[in-house]
Structure formats: C-alpha cells, structure tokens
C-alpha cells in the first residue's frame, strides 16, 4: 500500500516539476503540490497571480513543516530499517522519474542541442586549436587588405 | 661636412610627420626605430596616472645613452616626465662609456645598441657599467652567445665585433662592466634561414660572484643531469670572478646555449634572487630549471631564439632590396608589437605563415617570416 501511495506522489511530482516556477526546490514543490491538491488545487491561480503565489508558498511551507512533523512521529514509531526502506524507495522513485523524462521526448528536437554538450565543447576546442589562425591579421589588424593593394 | 649631414637630416624629417604614441610601453623600440628611420617621435602620458608619474631612472638613463651615440638629437621632456619629444640626429658612434641604471641590467641597454651599432658613422666601442645579469632582461652572457652569431649572418662580422665581460655585477648594486664593439657596414646581406637543423652541442656558463665557488659546480652538475640524456656534447664553463671583478652584490646563475648544425643558437638562462629579495634559491634547483627552460626553448625552436626575434626582423627590414626569410618559433608579444612598429616607421609588412613541423619530434609550431628589405644604406658612414 505504501508503494502505491509513493508512486502516486511521484506522478504528482512529475506534473509539478514541469510547471515549477523555479522558486522552490523540487522536493518542496512536490510536497506542497500534494497538499494544494488536497485543499482544492488552486494551481492555475497561483501561477497567474504573483501575490497568490507568494501566499501559496507560505502555505506550502507551513504544510511542509506539518508533514515533516508527522513524518518524524512516524519515524519514531517505525523501526529504523523501515525508515531506510522508505528513503530508498523514495530515491528509486526519483530515478525512475528521471528516466521517464528522458524517454518522454514529446517535444522532439526541441532540446536536442543539449545532447553531448561537453563532447561538442571539447571538439570545438580541438578544432580551434588545430585551425591555423591568420597570424598576419592578428598582428597587423584589419587594414591588411588596403595596404596590400597600395 | 656637418652642414651637409644636417641638410639631409632636415629633409628626411620634413618628409615624414611626427609619430605620436601614448604610454610607457615599448619605449626602447620606439626610440630605436625613430633613430633608424629619422622620424621624430612624441610619446605622451608616460605613467601619467600613477602615483610616481613620468619616466623611470632606467628609462632616463636609456635616453641619455641614445643621446650619447647620436649627434644632433633633440630631446625634450616636460616637467613631470610624462611627455617625451625626440627628434633623432645622426648615429655617430665612436668610443664611449655609459653608466647604466642598476634597476635594469646592461642587457636592457645592450639589446637596443645591437640594433643601432651596425649603422653608426664610426664603429661603436662602448663601455657599459651596471648589472650584467639579472632575472628580467637577457644577460650579457646570453646576448654574447646568441646575438653576435646572428649579426654575423647579416654580414656584420670581423674582428671588431665583440662583447667582453670585464666585471660581473649582480643586482641590486651592480658594479659590472662590459665592453661592446661593433663594426659598421654600408649594406646588410639578406638572409634565407629556414632550416635550423639538429642540435649539435650545448654550451653554457655557470657564474658565481661573492658566494662560494662551489655554487657554480653544483649548478653544472644538476643541469648536466638533465641534458646528458639527450646528447653527449655538453660543456658548461664555470666562471667565478673575484675581487674587483665580482661587483658589489652576491649572486649566481646560469646561461645555457644549444647550437645546431646550421648555426642557430637557442638560449635559456636563470639567475638567483637578488640579495634581500625573495627566498634563497638552491643552485641544484636553478641548474635543473635552467636545463628545462633550454629544452622548452628547443621545443619552440626556430632559427632565431626568442630573445633575438625582433633583432633578426629589424635587420631583415633594413637589408638590401631582396627577399629575406627566417623561420621563427612562436612570436613573442614583444616581437608582435615590434612588427607593428616596423610597419608604422618603415611601412614594411611581413608575410607571416604558420608551419607545422612535418615530422614528429620536431617541436611546436613555427612561423615563417618573409619580407623584402627597404634597401637601407648607412648614410652616416663615410665612403673612402
């Protein structure tokens, strides 16, 4: 049952992450999102209105603290090994979710330039190193053509 | 005779307008090229924004030296020393002496004299006093070993050409003395110098003054430790000067020269920290580092070593109206600026081509410099 809960949460996380404004970290957003959905989900409003967003954030923070408290209690009750399991599961979920993002290439080609950035940079560097610069231009500047005609 | 020379001088100066520069950089280059081209020169804003504005003592000493070797130069410096106007006279030469400022070594002055000396009216024979070896400028040993063979390639040779170290002087107090003599030539030979060839032998000098004579041996030992792996023909002289010849400050150092089968001389050098400045340097460490510097210089290669690039380019520019070619290692920033100055003073531009060595183990990228000489002939020299 726990797992099903978590997977549900992770799904929600995904939705949140795609609309994350960047103000909060992923985890905060996910937690708050769960809460906001429970409370009736004024997601669109929060994105439209800046003030609303700020108030929402406050709410999120409060709920997040609450959650943390409840979790602490749970932990106290639970055996340590179980808690470890919980964390591991969480981590696993995150991994899964990352992969899903990679595979779900609905926006085909849009982010293609981001692929192998380091490799591309390395190649460009080597190309620049190997290409022979026009030393004459470097030394004498751009007036070179004019002077040659004279 | 004096009237004749002054009239030719005034005609040359009226045909060319005054060149104007700002800032203290490349002062020597500008003064030397102005003297050779006969164009007046104005330099403004010499350290104008610094707390201690104007020319430094070594620059003032350099200007005095230029005044000594020329005849009829007009030099005007403003009150604060931030503006310099120089109208060059004729290069006169003769027997002279000059006390160089100890804040730069004699090499600073000698480098420029090497550019001017072949074009004097009378052969230059000058005694320079000051610091012979320091960590900034090319040492007298270095110039003696690399610049003189280069002058010979351009046809400036004979018995009159020599650099002799009478006394060695280390910074900060100096106290060294050298003699520089150079014959005059009416025209320079063009050179075709594009293949340095392989390294034939390594020579060098390890000197020590006012410290234990053992220092020189220790430097030699460690330098040989590195160089012996590459070729057997290595001889490093130890030079320990005593008494009056040892100058006023203690110190030691080393200068290494690699000679190729085609007569290229590549050099590297290091000197100990001046007394009271920086940590003490171990002679072993210095010897090792100097050997590594020489290997670096050999890797960069070329037919002229990096300290003499600009001298070679100047003599090519001033040669007969014929094509000169020289293969250099990577151009030094000083040389790049020198090329720009050559263009503004002599309207000459070099053809610059990069050459990657076709074989392996032939060092880094090279630059082939080509130009046609402007047919400069030494007008000051009397024709017999």
**What is the average of the pLDDT values of chain A?**
58
Gross morphology of chain B is globular
Greatest interface: A-B, 9 and 13 residues
According to CATH, the homologous superfamily of the domain at 199-300 in chain B is RNA 3'-terminal phosphate cyclase, insert domain
Number of helices of chain B: 9
Assign a percent range to the helix content of chain B: 25-40%
User: What's the CATH architecture name of the domain at 199-300 in chain B?
Assistant: 2-Layer Sandwich
Low-confidence stretches of chain A: 13-50, 146-150
Strand content of chain A: under 5%
Distance between the termini of chain A: 87 Å
Residue-averaged pLDDT of chain B, rounded?
A: 91
Number of domains of chain A: 2
Which structural class do the helices and strands of chain B define? Answer: alpha+beta
Overall 3D shape of chain A:
elongated
Largest sheet of chain A: none
- What strand order characterises the main sheet of chain B? 1-2-5-4
Question: Ends of chain B: how far apart?
Answer: 14 Å
Question: What do these coordinates show?
Answer:
- Chain B: One of its GO terms (biological process) is endonucleolytic cleavage of tricistronic rRNA transcript (SSU-rRNA, 5.8S rRNA, LSU-rRNA).
- Chain B: Keywords: Nucleus, Ribosome biogenesis.
- Chain B: Residues 21-352 form the RNA 3'-terminal phosphate cyclase domain.
- Chain B: Belongs to the RNA 3'-terminal cyclase family. Type 2 subfamily.
- The complex is a heterodimer of chains A (150) and B (384).
- Chain A has 150 residues and is mostly helical.
- Chain A folds into two domains: 2-105, no CATH class; 117-149, no CATH class.
- Chain A has eight helices and no strands.
- In chain A, helix 1 crosses helix 5.
- Among the domains of chain B are: 8-91, Translation Initiation Factor IF3, CATH 3.30.110; 199-300, Dihydrodipicolinate Reductase, domain 2 (2-Layer Sandwich), CATH 3.30.360.20; 304-372, no CATH class.
- Chain B is built from nine helices and 18 strands.
- A four-stranded mixed beta sheet of chain B has the order 1-2-5-4, with helices on one face. A four-stranded mixed beta sheet of chain B has the order 7-8-10-9, covered by helices on one side. In chain B, strands 11-16-18-17 form a four-stranded mixed beta sheet, with helices on one face.
- In chain B, strand 14 (251-260) and strand 15 (265-271) form a beta hairpin.
- Chain B is globular and about 55 Å long.
- The two termini of chain B are 14 Å apart.
- The A-B interface holds A 132-133, 135-136, 138-140, 144, 147 and B 331, 336, 339-340, 343, 349-354, 356, 367.
């Amino acid at each position: 049952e726990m797992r099903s809960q978590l997977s549900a949460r992770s799904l929600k996380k995904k939705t949140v992450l795609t609309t994350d404004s960047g103000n909060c970290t992923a985890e905060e957003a996910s937690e708050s999102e769960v809460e906001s959905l429970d409370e009736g989900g004024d997601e669109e409003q929060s994105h439209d209105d800046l003030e609303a967003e700020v108030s929402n954030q406050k709410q999120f923070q409060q709920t997040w603290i609450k959650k943390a408290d409840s979790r602490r209690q749970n932990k106290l009750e639970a055996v340590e090994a179980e808690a470890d399991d919980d964390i591991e599961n969480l981590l696993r979920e995150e991994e899964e979710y990352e992969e899903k993002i990679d595979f779900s290439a609905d926006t085909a080609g849009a982010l293609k330039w981001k692929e192998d950035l380091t490799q591309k940079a390395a190649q460009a560097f080597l190309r620049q190193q190997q290409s022979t610069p026009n030393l004459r231009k470097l030394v004498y500047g751009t007036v070179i053509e004019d002077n040659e005609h004279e | 005779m004096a009237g004749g020379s002054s009239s030719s001088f005034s005609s040359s100066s009226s045909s060319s307008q005054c060149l104007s520069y700002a800032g203290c950089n490349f002062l020597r280059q500008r003064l030397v090229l102005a003297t050779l081209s006969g164009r007046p020169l104005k330099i403004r804003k010499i350290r104008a924004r610094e707390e201690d504005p104007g020319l430094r003592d070594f620059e003032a000493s350099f200007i005095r030296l230029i005044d000594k070797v020329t005849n009829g130069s007009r030099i005007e410096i403003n009150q604060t020393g931030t503006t310099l106007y120089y109208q060059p006279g004729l290069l006169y030469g003769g027997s002279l002496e000059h006390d160089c400022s100890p804040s730069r070594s004699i090499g600073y002055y000698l480098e420029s004299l090497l550019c001017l000396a072949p074009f004097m009216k009378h052969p230059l024979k000058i005694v320079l006093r000051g610091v012979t070896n320091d960590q900034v400028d090319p040492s007298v040993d270095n110039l003696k070993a690399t610049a003189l063979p280069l002058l010979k390639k351009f046809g400036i040779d004979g018995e009159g050409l020599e650099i002799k170290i009478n006394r060695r002087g280390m910074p900060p107090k100096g106290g060294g003395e050298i003699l520089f003599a150079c014959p005059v030539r009416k025209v320079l030979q063009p050179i075709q110098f594009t293949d340095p060839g392989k390294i034939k032998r390594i020579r060098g000098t390890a000197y020590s003054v006012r410290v234990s004579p053992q220092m020189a041996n220790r430097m030699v030992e460690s330098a040989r430790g590195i160089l012996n792996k590459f070729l057997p023909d290595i001889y490093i002289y130890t030079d320990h000067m005593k008494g009056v010849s040892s100058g006023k400050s203690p110190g030691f150092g080393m200068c290494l020269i690699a000679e190729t089968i085609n007569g290229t001389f590549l050099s590297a050098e290091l000197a100990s920290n001046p007394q009271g400045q920086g940590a003490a340097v171990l002679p072993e460490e210095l010897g090792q580092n100097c050997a590594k510097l020489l290997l670096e210089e050999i890797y960069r290669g070329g037919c002229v070593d990096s300290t003499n690039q600009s001298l070679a380019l100047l003599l090519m520019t001033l040669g007969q109206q014929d094509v000169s070619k020289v293969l250099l290692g990577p151009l030094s920033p000083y040389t790049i600026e020198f090329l720009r100055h050559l263009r503004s003073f002599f309207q000459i531009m070099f053809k610059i081509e990069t050459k990657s060595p076709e074989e392996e183990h032939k060092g880094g990228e090279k630059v082939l410099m080509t130009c046609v000489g402007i047919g400069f002939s030494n007008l000051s020299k009397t024709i017999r």
